[in-house]
């Protein structure tokens, strides 16, 4: 793998101004790198990271969940603890007038600590939540992960001013189960403001930004005769040579870097936004003072995977769906289909079932979905980030694979990315998890050839009607009834 660490006087290009690009630029500039230039096609100075103004990146949003809860993945738990301290420092700086961005004031905040509630519809806590409680306690964060069904934890939540956040959907009052864990360290980031603040700070430390539909839009890499990456060409035809090019392009990264095939792909999440009228009695009960961010059955597949927020200052109440990570494959120049950057019917169905059960007040007041959005993520196959030098491409580095859970690290992930660029602390578990990798393939421990299988001829329990239907199904589709297929539908070899 070709690796290169740029010197403080070398030119560094960053393509992308989402949280990875912003944080990388900010921390490189803080470390004294003198020639950092960030390119992107959105004029964020004007649009202010608002998707109401046409911004299309995943980082351009009204809010994002902040949480420490990571089950057994303690590398992200520790990273989250570090991030939350940085978010609080940003709030403190704003409050005291330190480097306040034009348009913001000492009354602004970028992190709201209203808690983050992880809910199940079962009667017992899932393994993930139990592991979160255990690992946070062992890390010294006692009484931060509060189990909704434990009376002592209910008292602790009340003492923290988060009593209502333990049962924001009033499940107990309705005689329904309310099982989950409130992460009292969590809440949400005001995403658009936070990105604008990070961009402002990076500029103040000396990073340069080219944010323009043409001049900031990536076209191609500039390569040397031996294949090294020595810069980029933009849509205006201008070349920008650099010792190191960092690709941080969110959902577009896999289509720009074919090397990511089988490692990362762009996937779609669906977002539904309700508008709470200022005259509504729900304004208080759905405000951050009483209502937390929440996740509902997020590891339960297609029929779960919901998350949501309190209403914001404008009355927008956001609910998102990630139960299925949808893709949109399109043929590329090399003939290979890749998922690129329409609300999805399955997502709408899950939300339509959830709201009457958990937020019936919305229907009672006649409040329906006001607008929708598809949010494009870049998912790695294992949900770990990809932060590493691109193999066999000297001068090229990638930061991607955010997998829907990276925004919370806006204040601090750049420091880790810069360490990875410089080769600092490379044995740390997080850095190891983010290295370039491949699917396990045929030799992997999860491959079917390497695990015990059960003979379906013994266990299928198919009835005669089941078998007859199976044979008819195969014949109507001109599918050959091979021995493996016979076993699938419950036929023995003698049939």
From TrEMBL:
Residues 13-418 form the FAD dependent oxidoreductase domain. Gene3D superfamilies: D-Amino Acid Oxidase, subunit A, domain 2, FAD/NAD(P)-binding domain. It comes from Bimuria novae-zelandiae CBS 107.79. Belongs to the MSOX/MTOX family. InterPro entries: FAD-dep_OxRdtase, FAD/NAD-bd_sf, MTOX. Residues 140-162 are annotated as: Disordered. The lineage of its organism: Eukaryota, Fungi, Dikarya, Ascomycota, Pezizomycotina. Keywords: FAD, Flavoprotein, Membrane, Oxidoreductase, Transmembrane, Transmembrane helix. The chain crosses the membrane at residues 12-29. The keyword Transmembrane helix applies. This is FAD dependent oxidoreductase. Its cofactor is FAD. GO terms for molecular function: flavin adenine dinucleotide binding; sarcosine oxidase activity.
């Amino acid at each position: 793998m070709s690796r290169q660490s740029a010197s403080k006087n070398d030119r560094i290009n960053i393509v992308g101004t989402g949280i990875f690009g912003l944080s990388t630029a900010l921390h490189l500039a803080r470390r004294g790198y003198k020639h950092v230039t960030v390119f992107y096609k959105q004029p964020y100075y004007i649009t202010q990271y608002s998707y109401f103004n046409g911004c299309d990146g995943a980082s351009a949003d009204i809010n994002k969940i902040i949480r420490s809860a990571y089950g057994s993945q303690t590398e992200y738990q520790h990273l989250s603890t570090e991030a939350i301290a940085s978010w609080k420092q940003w709030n403190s700086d704003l409050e005291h007038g330190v480097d306040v961005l034009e348009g913001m004031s000492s009354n602004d905040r970028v992190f709201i600590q209203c808690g983050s509630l992880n809910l199940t519809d079962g009667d017992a806590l899932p393994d993930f939540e139990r592991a979160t409680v255990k690992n946070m306690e062992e890390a010294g964060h006692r009484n931060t992960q509060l189990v909704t069904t434990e009376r002592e934890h209910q008292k602790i939540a009340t003492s923290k001013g988060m009593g209502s956040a333990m049962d924001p959907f009033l499940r107990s009052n309705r005689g329904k189960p309310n099982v989950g864990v409130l992460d009292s360290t969590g809440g949400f980031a005001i995403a658009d403001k936070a990105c604008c603040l990070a961009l402002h700070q990076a500029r103040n430390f000396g990073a340069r930004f080219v944010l323009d539909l043409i001049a900031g839009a990536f076209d191609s890499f500039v390569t040397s005769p031996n294949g090294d990456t020595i810069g980029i060409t933009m849509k205006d035809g201008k070349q920008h040579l650099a010792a190191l090019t960092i690709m941080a392009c969110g959902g577009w990264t896999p289509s720009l870097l074919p090397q990511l095939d089988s490692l990362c792909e762009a996937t779609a999440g669906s977002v539904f936004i309700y508008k709470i009228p200022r005259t509504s009695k729900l304004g208080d009960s759905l405000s951050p003072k009483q209502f937390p961010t929440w996740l509902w059955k997020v590891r339960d597949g297609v029929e779960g995977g919901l998350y949501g927020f309190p209403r914001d200052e404008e009355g927008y109440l956001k609910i998102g769906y990630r139960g299925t990570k949808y893709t949109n494959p399109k043929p590329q120049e090399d003939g290979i289909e890749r998922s690129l950057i329409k609300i999805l019917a399955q997502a709408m169905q899950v939300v339509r079932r959830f709201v009457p059960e958990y937020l019936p007040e919305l229907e009672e007041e006649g409040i329906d979905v006001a607008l929708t959005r598809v949010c494009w993520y870049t998912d790695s196959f294992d949900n770990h980030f990809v932060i590493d030098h691109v193999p066999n491409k000297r001068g090229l580095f990638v930061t991607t694979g955010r997998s829907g859970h990276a925004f919370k690290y806006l204040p601090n992930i750049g420091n880790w990315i810069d360490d990875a660029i410089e080769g600092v602390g490379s044995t740390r578990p997080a850095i190891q998890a983010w290295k370039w990798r491949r699917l396990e393939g045929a030799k992997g421990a999860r491959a079917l050839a390497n695990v015990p299988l059960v003979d379906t001829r013994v266990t299928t329990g198919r009835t005669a009607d089941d078998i007859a239907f199976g044979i008819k199904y195969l014949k109507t589709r001109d599918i050959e009834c091979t021995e493996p297929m016979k076993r699938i539908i419950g036929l023995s070899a003698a049939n």
